[in-house]
Amino acid sequence: MQYLQAADRASIGDQESASGTIQFELTISGTESFNKVSKALGSSSSAKFEAIPLSKVLERLADEQFVAIAIDSDALKQAGINPELPVTLSVPPISLRSKLNLILSELQLDYVYKHELLFVTTPAVVELEMIPLRYEIESTLFLGTDLAELLQKLADSLANVEGNRPVVQLLRTVNEDDGRVNLFVRANKKTHAEIERVLRMLAPTTK
Fold first, then answer.
1. What is the pLDDT of residue 197?
2. Using one digit for the tens of pLDDT, what is the confidence trace for 93-116?
3. Looking at residue 178, what is its pLDDT?
4. Distance CA 9, CA 72 (A)
């Protein structure tokens, strides 16, 4: 259930460090439906469920955030997980993403963006789901850094050894005239999260 939507703007904002402060903005986007789902994942609201079946909880969350959520019945059946297991949760306003993480982690489940909706399934299925995204970055913030080479090294380090199936593919790098770089990457949910973390970590700071 986690993969993409209306230009999901992940902005670090004023990033503090010993070197000073810099305004750094990283824009991550996918298909139109991905961006829509991503926006819904960031929407916040309170929640209170008292021993409500998982399927009903997901229906309620989907209605509240106007996003489609589906259960991977076959994967849950193979894993021996009943989609009618009771869910109890009481939280103040937090994002839909956080609610799903809290609920699904207790049941050893996860979610991923698939078929234009949020797909609740097992972690094994999520790991195999590859999602193409575009990372738009100010190239001037990474002067002297070969981002394509950097991401490829990251891809190699995160490669799924089992079956030699790569979890990320650097599709192409496009340098724009406006001083920005577009990186097109196909990867699974976990790898995209790691790529974003690394890009933010490497963002330089200036006085």
1. 83
2. 999 999 999 999 999 999 999 888
3. 64
4. 29
Q: Which residues of 155-189 are buried (b: 16+ CB within 10 A; e: fewer)?
A: beebeeeeeeebbbebeebeeeeeebbbbebbbbb
* Confidence band for 122, pLDDT divided at 50, 70 and 90: very high
- Total-model pTM: 0.72
| Helix runs in 6-113, H state only | 32-42, 54-65, 73-78, 96-106
**Can you spell out the DSSP letters for 80-99?**
T--TT-EEEEEEEEEEHHHH
* Dihedral Cα 120, 124, 127, 130, nearest 10 deg: -70
Q: In what order do the strands lie in the sheet with 131-138?
A: 8-17, 20-29, 131-138, 180-187, 168-175
Q: How big is the CA angle at 71 (ends 68 and 77), to the nearest 5 degrees?
A: 175
Tell me the pLDDT band of 207, cut-offs 50, 70 and 90.
very low
Tokens (6 digits) for 121: 């399934």
Cβ(186)–Cβ(171) below 8 Å: yes
